[in-house]
Every structure is written in C-alpha cells, then in structure tokens.
Design a protein that fits this description.
It contains eight helices and 16 strands. It is of the alpha+beta class. Bound molecules: phosphoribosyl ATP and zinc ion.
C-alpha cells in the first residue's frame, strides 16, 4: 500500500483528484471532512494535508508520495525526490515593484526591502545575483505590503498578473516557474516502488492523452500525400477508402498546441468533414 499526500482544499485539490479519477482510481470513504481515504481498486491510501506540510510528511515517510507545487518543494528544502511534473497549477514566482518605481535592472533591487512568503527561494536568488536586499517574511496578502509601507517590493506567485495590476505593481524579474509535481520519499522500498511505478504509468498515460487529439477527415485521393505530410500521427496516419470512389478517410493524432495551424493546412490541402475528438488514455 502506497500513501499519497494531497492538498486538503485549495488550488491543487480538484486537479489532483481528477488525475486519480482519470487514472481509474476510485476513492472510498471520501466524505467532505475527511483526513484519509483509501482506494477501492488500487493499493493506495490518501492523506489530506495543507500543502505546506506535504514536503515534510513525504521526507519523514509519513506519506510515501505527495502532490504539491514545485514552489513549496523548493521553499521547504526537505529531502524529497521530484518524480514527475504534472502540468497543472502552473505559475511563476516573480519580483514586483510599485508602478512608479524607476526599475532599470537587477541592481535596482540593492538596498530594497522585499516582502515574501518564500524567503528561502528569494535568498538563494539574491545571493546568486550578488544583490543586497532585506527580506521581509510575511505569510499572506504579500501584494499589499508596498501600499502600506511595509516593504519596497514583493516576491510572490503570479499567474495571470491581475493581482499585481490591481495593486499597482509591475512584475520585473521572474525567479522560477512552478507547477504541481509528484514527490516521493527518496528511498522507497520494493513493494512501494512497484506501486509508484504503476501509478506513474497511469498518470503519464492520462497526461499524454490531455495533450493530444484524435483527428478524422475525408479527402480526395490525390490530396493524401500532402495530408500525410501534415499529419504524421504516432507512426503514420491510418488511411481507409470511402464508399465513394476516389475518396478516403484519414485518421491520426495531433498535439493540441499545433491544432489551429494543422487544421488550416489540412483545409488548404483539400480535407473535408474534419472531426477532432479528445483521447482518454494514450500509451505509446
Ligand atoms: O491551505 P493550503 O496551505 O493548503 O493552501 P495555500 O493557500 O497555501 O495554497 P493555494 O491553494 O492557494 O495554492 C496552492 C499552489 O497552487 C501554490 O503553491 C502554487 O504552486 C499553485 N498556484 C498556481 C497558485 C496560483 N497559481 C496563484 N495564482 N498559488 C497562488 N496563487 C495566488 C497568488 O498567491 C496571488 O495572490 O493567486 C494570486 C495571483 O494570481 P493572478 O492570477 O492574479 O496573477
Ligand atoms: Zn499553503
């Protein structure tokens, strides 16, 4: 049995649970005020914790693995192994200054006081850049610190940037990029390591499928060569004759990020009746 620590409630919770569900893992005794749950059909137990406690619990072996933001892993400096990036809760940790501040580059940070809930990550950055700034550690609402005269600048999580903007702040340096990651105790034993491998296999199949789409289209036979060039597929596209002479149906797999460009090229090459559908799992 493997023990997985998840955030109890917050920005990581829904997506972490969705990843389990899409991986075919169903949790029992999942009532709302829960501390623990077990999976009915997979050797997995869930511990629900605050995200800040997850690196320590995994490092101490209270949980074997956990899902937490990379920013929290780096800040806590516990001995855990990052096993996989999970592609959600993406954000960056940046330094921001008031709009009226005349920022001309890193040297402008010398002598400032910077408010943050991530003092260790900020300290490392300042030391690496040989900058002298004072770190003012606060735990919440960091973005209000310059407005109330508590600090000159802030170092905080940015996603869309709208929190900074509504507080009259401008992002001037991005220090790190973060996303949810799967972390593990460094020395998992044989049985637990095997369960982790099988969990990872499922997570990877789900994550890969999310990045791809299945595409079906009809095309005149003379366009097939060009269309096969546009649609490489996992090996090569599947081509089947239609009942109508001179026409074929083409099936393939495309990356979501290339979607619009590919569709335009396909139409220009003569494709018709294009259907694009999600893929549930993808094992290559
Ligand atoms: O209660 P618990 O301690 O478990 O949760 P928490 O309140 O500490 O964390 P939570 O749930 O807010 O965030 C969990 C993780 O989500 C973070 O550690 C990040 O890894 C990730 N994440 C992704 C974010 C954001 N995006 C985000 N936008 N965490 C926080 N924010 C906040 C940020 O602090 C700022 O106030 O959103 C604001 C900025 O957002 P924009 O869109 O206005 O730029
Ligand atoms: Zn937290």
């Amino acid at each position: 049995m493997l023990t997985l620590a998840l955030q109890k409630s917050g920005r990581l919770s829904d997506r972490s649970l969705a990843l389990l569900t899409e991986s075919g893992i169903h949790l029992e005794n999942g009532s709302s005020n829960r501390l623990k749950a077990t999976a009915g059909n997979f050797p997995l137990q869930i511990l629900y914790l605050r995200d800040d406690d997850i690196p320590e619990c995994v490092a101490d072996g209270v949980a074997d693995v956990g899902i937490v933001g990379l920013n929290v892993v780096e800040e806590k400096e516990r001995s855990v192994r990052v096993v996989e990036k999970l592609g959600f809760a993406r954000c960056r940790l940046s330094i921001a200054v008031p709009r009226q501040f005349h920022y001309t580059g890193l040297a402008s940070l010398n002598g400032l006081s910077i408010a943050t809930a991530y003092p260790r990550i900020l300290r490392k950055f300042l030391d690496n850049q040989h900058l002298q700034a004072t770190i003012h550690e606060i735990s919440g609402s960091v973005e209000v610190a310059p407005g109330i005269g508590m600090a000159d600048a802030i170092f905080d999580i940015v996603s869309t940037g709208s929190t900074l903007m509504s507080n009259g702040l401008v992002e001037v340096e991005t220090v790190m990029h973060s996303e949810a990651v799967l972390v593990a105790t460094p020395d998992l034993n044989g049985d637990k390591a095997a369960v982790l491998e099988s969990l990872l296999f499922r997570f990877r199949a789900v994550m890969k499928a999310r990045r791809y789409r299945y595409i079906l289209l009809n095309a005149p036979n003379e366009a097939l060569e060009e269309i096969s060039r546009i649609l490489p597929g996992m090996k090569s596209p599947t081509i089947m004759p239609l009942a109508m002479p001179g026409w074929s149906s083409v099936h393939s797999v495309i990356q979501e990020e290339d979607f619009w460009e590919i569709i335009e090229n396909l139409k220009a090459a003569g494709a018709q009746g294009i259907l694009v559908v999600p893929i549930e799992k993808m094992i290559v």
